[in-house]
Amino acid sequence: MIWTLYAGWRLLSVPTEWWRWRDDAVITLSHARGWVDFGVPSVSSAGERVEGYSAPLQMFFASGFYRLGGSGWAGFLDVQVALGLAMFGCLVACLLRLVFPQVGEAALVAGSTVVAVVGLSTWAALGWFASGMENSLTVPLLLATMVTLIGVLTVEGHRGYAFGLLVGLAGISRTEFAVLLVPVLSIAVVALWREHRHVALRSVGIAASIWGAAYLWRWVTFRTLIPNSALIQDRTDLALGSAVVLVVVSAAIVVVALVWRVDRWRMIAATGLGVAAALIGLLAARSASGWGIAGLPTMITIGLAGAIIVAAITAASGAGRREAW
Q1: Which of 56, 200, 315, 317 could potentially form a cystine with 189 if both were Cys, beta carbons 3.0 to 4.6 Å apart?
Q2: Of 180, 116, 130, nearest to 15 (Cα)?
Q3: Is residue 2 situated within a structural domain?
Q4: Is residue 49, in this structure, part of any structural domain at all?
Q5: For residue 184, what are the contacts with CB-CB under 8 A and spacing of at least 6?
Q6: How many domains does the chain have?
Q7: pLDDT (tens digit, 9 = 90+) per residue, 291-305?
Q8: Residue 42 counted as domain residue
Q9: What is the pTM of this model?
Q10: What is the dihedral of CA 277, 278, 280, 285, to 10 degrees?
């Protein structure tokens, strides 16, 4: 409620044309409509199959909406943003509860309010979230992935269904996120393998099945596993290079986690490598050559956020136990 009210107040204080129904939000829905009407993801039956597919999950949701008789984009995007904001606030509260289990309800509300004010005060965050693009799906899914990752590693009896499903969906919320989430799966598998191997295998199986289905659809539709937009922008080498680097670093995560002796430091080292892998991929994505450092301050901010997340999970879980993961 706090998040929705604060975001609504912020958004209504500026002209709606600044943020409502912007850019790729409408393009993605247009291609979803073309897929439903003409069988190809394009804006007309005669148009080339230019992929409006940077956000597969949003495109699939929109296609379902149109197949059920929906029309236009205004209602769909407004509902998506409103639900995304509500889930955003709910999941932040869940994370705060996990990190600070002894804190009372009043302190939890105060903490959620502080996070809402800080997190939604920058237009770069709130404007993109409210644009109707995939941000209002991606951000809640990534937060939910964090919540269920902590759950699957610390709660006895957790079977891994929710974690696998949410990692899978987050991985197709944007085309490249499946690769970026490989380190997360690597950490979970190593942490669970000895005592809860079936949970590890189930989580990976569910996530990989979702990713595999999305990539199979792309192959059937475009006869390529590389996003069609990457081919148009001549960024094919970039996409492949980032994937290779992230897979190599994910392998390093497994090696470090297996040889480290202290649970707390093993968790920090392994997760740090995962954050580094994500930073490498993001840095590559910001440069036409694939390896530049354009936008480095943004990357540093992301890295610090990752470090804070690691510290918070460590504090919540405690050291010296398997749950420290």
Answers
A1: 200
A2: 130
A3: no
A4: no
A5: 145, 149, 167, 274
A6: 1
A7: 444 445 545 545 554
A8: no
A9: 0.70
A10: 150
